[in-house]
Amino acid sequence: MFFLTRRQQKAHRWTCRDPAKMPRNLLGRVDIVEGSHGDTSVIAQAIAQVESVFWLPPGAPASASAQEAYVDFSRPFCEALAGSQVRQVVGISDLGRGWPKPAGHVTASLHMDDMIAQTGVAYRALACASLMDNLLRQAGVIRESHTFYQPTAGDLKLPHVAKADVADVAARLLTNTDWSGVDAIPLLGPENLSFAKIDSLRHRWRG
Question: Where are the alpha helices (DSSP H) in 23-72?
């Protein structure tokens, strides 16, 4: 997890479960707090003298429920915000606010947004469409069978967004002090794409 300390210093602080796995080019350039950002003592240390926070729960598949993975995980952070110097938080969330039925991790992410907003900090929820980069989890399957699999109709057009575009928006918000209040920013690609279309583009890119 990423934290920006006093803005005039432009110092960066990260939480990391295993610092040995961090990229070597970052070691020595950032302040590292070892441990999980869902742990009360770790998060208290991490946000000390911090003004801006990038918040992203890991969404661990081993969690008993989406509620546990997103809302319960974020609760120590929200409790720590009350006595902190944090003024702005940028969080990764989902599209779907207003949907009347339970929707798994989407519903949990939106509940997390509400919980953070209720702490009184300025908050921007980056409401992401499905990350196109998630297809890379099937890189081995694509390499071996020249196809990929999704539990979705192949011709159904859906919004997608690239991870790099999400990072660009988050970075701008974290380094810009000219915003306040609570809002969500929908992050969508330039057009909705079906997985059949994505597959055809993949073949074109391969030549």
Answer: 40-46, 66
